[in-house]
Write a structure and sequence with these properties.
The chain has 378 residues and is an alpha+beta fold. 39% of the residues lie in helices and 10% in strands. The radius of gyration is 22 Å and the shape is elongated. Residues 200-229 form the 4Fe-4S ferredoxin-type domain.
Length: 378
């Protein structure tokens, strides 16, 4: 029996009353419905994650999750689907593409110190709501054909080892940067799951094809990828700009460049993304010109404007205070232009002490650089 849950799109479940088709035929039909629901990839797997459980325990023991206490809060439920949702015997893993043909533009933004870099996934609509809605509609369509069945919808909403499940379902392998990579689709896609009480035949798991490549490890601005498949989230820019509260370590600030929400460097350099097919999902198109916006422009947003402009997007996750903190760091790494210095000065008396601290750090960084610039011969 699958109990309903208010925060993960679950539906009450009862034993199926209608006659169900042969498991192989049902799996084939589900794949058709997945495509019709708007997902570009899918696979089916069982619930054995024993090897991944050991890796997760070791990662947590080393403290690599930083302040993300929720990573350890649920014990082994993350790696034991049948404990998280009793009755689960199969998992349907789906992928929704968000990658755009803008790699060149992304690198140009990263090279322009006065512009803001926002991770590609966060430029448009929040994928969580979009995928949850599609997955629930998918479950409803399945139920309409076979009768009620036990299921739970997950999109980064509960302790789920989504990448391990997706790998086992054949959607791709876990790369050295810990992102999932598909030979034909690269890594620019979101993951979602349906936990099922249906006995479905599993797909073959994906095999790894990173070979000897270490581009993702070498390019990481803060060297957060300590080795193949080992990410220290405490140094990861995505963690620092989105999850981490309070002050950012001063040693890491200069390494963050102009990245104000997330980081894509490890994906941008991945050879498998160079030839990947891209899918233009209208909901994921950039809002508020965030793919070209300047740091000073975004730093001027007051909280009401921030909330209005980020409504329905993943950017809300940072909150206005962290948004300003992150941009203050980026402005500290920007060229010492009048616009940059004026933007920082405008927030010097901000009531939040963390924001003031990062503004003062940024201004001191510019002040230290000016004598050096003046001393250079013409």
């Amino acid at each position: 029996m699958f109990p309903p849950s208010a925060d993960d799109g679950a539906a009450p479940a009862t034993a199926g009353a209608a006659r169900r088709p042969d498991p192989a035929a049902l799996a084939a039909r589900i794949r058709t419905l997945v495509r019709e629901a708007g997902f570009q990839r899918c696979g089916i797997t069982g619930i054995d994650l024993g090897d991944d459980e050991g890796h997760l325990r070791g990662w947590l023991a080393r403290g690599f999750h930083g302040s993300m206490d929720w990573m350890a809060r649920h014990g082994d439920k993350r790696s034991r689907p049948q404990e998280l949702v009793p009755g689960t015997i199969s998992v349907l893993s789906v992928g929704l593409d968000y990658g755009r043909r803008d790699d060149v533009e992304a690198w140009e933004t990263l090279a322009d110190g006065e512009r803001a870099y926002v991770a590609r996934y966060a430029l448009g609509r929040d994928y969580h709501k979009l995928m949850r809605g599609r997955l629930q509609k998918l479950a409803d369509r399945i139920a309409a054909e076979i009768g009620p069945f036990g299921h739970r919808v997950f999109v980064d909403s509960a302790p789920v080892l989504e990448r391990a499940l997706a790998r086992n379902a054949g959607l791709g392998w876990i790369g050295k940067h810990t992102c999932l990579i598909d030979r034909d689709g690269g890594s620019w896609f979101f993951l979602g799951e349906l936990y099922l009480d249906l006995p479905l035949p599993p797909d073959p798991p994906a095999t790894a094809h990173c070979g000897s490549c270490t581009r993702c490890i070498d390019v990481c601005p803060t060297q957060a990828i300590l080795g193949p498949h080992v990410l220290d989230a405490r140094r990861c820019i995505s963690y620092l700009t989105i999850e981490h509260e309070g002050s950012i370590d001063e040693e890491l600030r200069p390494l963050m460049g102009n990245r104000i929400f997330g980081c894509d460097d490890c994906q941008l350099v991945c050879p498998w993304n160079k030839f990947a097919r891209r899918h233009d999902e209208p909901d994921f198109r950039a809002r508020n010109n965030l793919d070209t916006a300047g740091l000073a422009e975004l730093f001027a947003w007051e909280e009401d404007e921030f909330l209005r402009r980020t409504e329905g997007t993943a950017l809300r996750r940072s909150g206005h205070a962290r948004w300003l903190r992150n941009i203050a760091v980026a402005l500290g790494n920007a060229p010492s232009t009048p616009e940059v210095l004026a933007a920082l000065a405008s927030r010097r008396d901000h009531p939040d002490p963390v924001i003031r601290e990062h503004v003062e750090w940024a201004l001191a960084r510019h002040a230290a650089a000016r004598p050096l610039a003046a001393a250079r011969p013409l």
